[in-house]
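For the sake of transparency, this paper describes our internal protein records without simplification. The record that follows is passed on verbatim for readers who wish to inspect the format:
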Amino acid sequence: GGRGPVGSAAEDGGQPAAPERVLFPPTFSVSEIKNKQRRHFMFLRWKQQQRKEKLAARKKRRKEREALGDKAPPKAVPKTIENQRVYDETTVDPNDEEVAFDEATDEFAPYFNRQTVPKILITTSDRPRGRTVRFCEQLSTVIPNSHVYYRRGLALKRIIPQCIARDFTDLIVINEDRKIPNGLVLSHLPDGPTAHFRMSSVRLRKEIKRKGKEPTEHVPEVILNNFTTRLGHSVGRMFASLFPHDPQFIGRQVATFHNQRDYIFFRFHRYIFKSEKKVGIQELGPRFTLKLRSLQKGTFDSKFGEYEWIHKRREMDTSRRKFHL
């Protein structure tokens, strides 16, 4: 039987060519190797080779750039899901008159016109466990003028009228599952809207490495990143209205809501001036991630609530590059 299509230079009359040391032929697939240990070993070698090639290519590019000097072509921008985002027709133009009118008449207008001062009630699901309790306490040190009350079997529909009677402007409910905080309901009083978020990646203060000292009483600055669509704008205004108007910069505390691919990352930092030019930041905690599930008109009403927006995974998540906030 023939031994396959392996020709040699000697048959053609020439000198036998020195065998090139090709580690992996182009058609090579690690998954074809049957032995598990061998397969794992070959996979590691293949990854190592890929890394070497990548590094060599990068060095070569850098040398070429240095040789060209000022004539070097501009650096290519790496493709990310974020910058390949599918255009959303509801993206807000800051100079749009219609948007300006909507903002002047929406439920948050009294806050932005400085007619109201935020007063927040933070509560939990029934009989919260230790971790949720600690999270609520830490959240109340981040949001000024917020008060923590524990639900004792009271329905939200009964809590809301009491909140309105006592001049609370917002209600935050932290829900938990198996002792872990997993949901946040934010209701703007007295007329709504109400947002339901899924909550994940909660880190309390003691779980954060290299954390700073406890937060002070100062009113923090608020940074809202990337809330570009009409829906995102509403959610951003909702977060902004939780904090008093004039941040006390002397406290150097910053609360950040950063939206990336529809996940809202919350971080709380203090910045430290090392010199006139150098600034360092210290995370104070807590930190958590939110994902919007629905936005409801009016205050919390699970039965007859009118929804402005609901996240429907199968219908909406057709493209990885489509975002809603």
